[in-house]
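G., the chain you wanted modeled:
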Amino acid sequence: MSKRLQVLGASEHLICIIVDLLKRNALDYDLILQRNLNLEFKPAVPVKDITISVAEPFSKPDESDPVIFGVSGAKNKIPVFEYYLDNFGITKDKYFRLIDKSFQIADSSIIGMGAFVEENVVVSAQTRIGFGVSLKRTVSIGHHCKIGDFVDINPGAIIAGKVSIGNGTTIGMGAKVIDNITIGRNCIIGAGSLVTKDIPDNSVAYGVPSKIIRENIIA
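Predicted structure as tokens:
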């Protein structure tokens, strides 16, 4: 008998990735989509249909089921997390870690609850990865790093050793961060950038080497 997995928030694209990642890893779950906004949901399925049950908006997820984020990016995940925590008491320990079987993580490293890890991701020694982090295809993270909560690291990014990345920051596709760098909270590092200097909180930076181009305003 299939178990149930409650999906919090609705991205028409991420839901499809979740379905495929579950199947690839032989995880037999029926998905129940929960919405904290009264919006119609329709998955993006131009190739092959998927099956997912959609609950009424603002419904309380079944307390016996694990939950998973159905949205990506800190600006979407944080409000979803806070809504379900404040209204239904869903704490961090209730979140499911969806991690591909190809994931390689050192024995001395740890990854928090609510993690979403796609194919061929590598994490080296003594690295701490926080809650609600997304690591996309072929991401590489070095030793003695600290990755904060709600961080998104996009496909092909390379994080060297002794790097700290603050809560809610997004690292763009193919970006590279050299050793001993600190990137603050709520930052955006553009795709293909090379980060060679520390980046303060609430910054948008890109380029080779990266330069701060503006403040990342929190709405």
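DSSP finds two helices and 23 strands in the chain.

Shout if anything looks off.
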